[in-house]
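User: My instructor asked us to take a sequence, write out its structure as tokens, and then describe one feature of it. I'm not sure where to start. Here is the sequence I was given:
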Amino acid sequence: MIDLEVLHRLQKILVERKTAAPDSSYVASLYAKGIDSICKKIAEEAAETIMAAKDGDRLHLVHEVTDLWFHSLMLLAQFDVGVDDVVAEFRRREGISGIDEKKRRGAEK
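Assistant: Let's start with the prediction itself. The structure tokens for your sequence are:
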């Protein structure tokens, strides 16, 4: 089972860093650069995750997914979306087939 407390602690730090001086931390500097920079970082980490998966290196894959989650959590914090919001969506989707979920989302557009 995932330790949500570590994600909650990280979320708290990410929220605090949103208003910190850009030179005080990596996270604060990335927030200061804006949404485009955060999104670029997520794209970079997603590409690195794919490459690690294709290499078949499990430890490298874990490291890259951790980086991807970290930057995704940063983006969520930028929009005042938290870990609990994402967990609630996972819970909502539990037991729903991917096909049905995609159909539901298509109907919303």
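For the description part of your assignment, you could build on this observation: The chain has a mean pLDDT of 93. Try explaining in your own words what that tells you about the chain.
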